[in-house]
Amino acid sequence: MATDVKRVPEMDLALETKEALVERVGLLERKFADLRQSMLASVALPSNWRLTPKERDLFLALLSNGIVTKQMAMLILYGTADRPTHSVDVFMSRIRSKTKSHSVKIETINRTGYRLVDRLVWRKTLKLDIPVEH
To answer: What span, in angstroms and rounded, lies between the C-alpha atoms of 49 and 55?
Structure first.
């Protein structure tokens, strides 16, 4: 009895231009660099905070940016901004409750997003070497 197996078409890299291949490799290198940086940063966060991967990514965004807008948070959490923003509030609430005993303060900026109070102090305390956006 034969089974009908659908195969994913293989990429024919020989048909791609040199420029397209260089662009593809560059994109993969950036993705790997981002993944490595995320892994290094997640190790620096206290394990007793018990942040989920999405909570960790959102907290790292707070460390990297002066303000994290709700749209930025949606992109970080879901890869799209086409979801209800209430879920961002829920994630921030969870992060606050998990980090409260460590004096982490996250401010809500009305109709805009969130800001980590003493962000640069936390970056230094956690010994994180991630890019800072102002």
So the answer is: 10
Order of all β-strands in the sheet with 113-116: 68-69, 113-116, 106-109
Q: Is residue 90 part of a domain?
A: yes
Answer whether residue 54 shows pLDDT above 70: yes
Name the domain count of the chain.
1
Is the separation of the CB atoms in 119 and 62 below 8 Å?
A: yes
**Per residue in 29-43, pLDDT tens?**
777 666 666 555 666
Q: One-letter amino acid identity for 20?
A: A
Residue 72 makes CB contacts below 8 A (sequence gap 6+) with 61, 65, 113
pTM recorded for the entire structure:
0.66
Q: What is the CATH number of the domain that holds 22?
A: 1.10.10.10
Q: Alpha helices, DSSP H only, in the chain?
A: 18-44, 53-64, 70-78, 86-99, 119-125
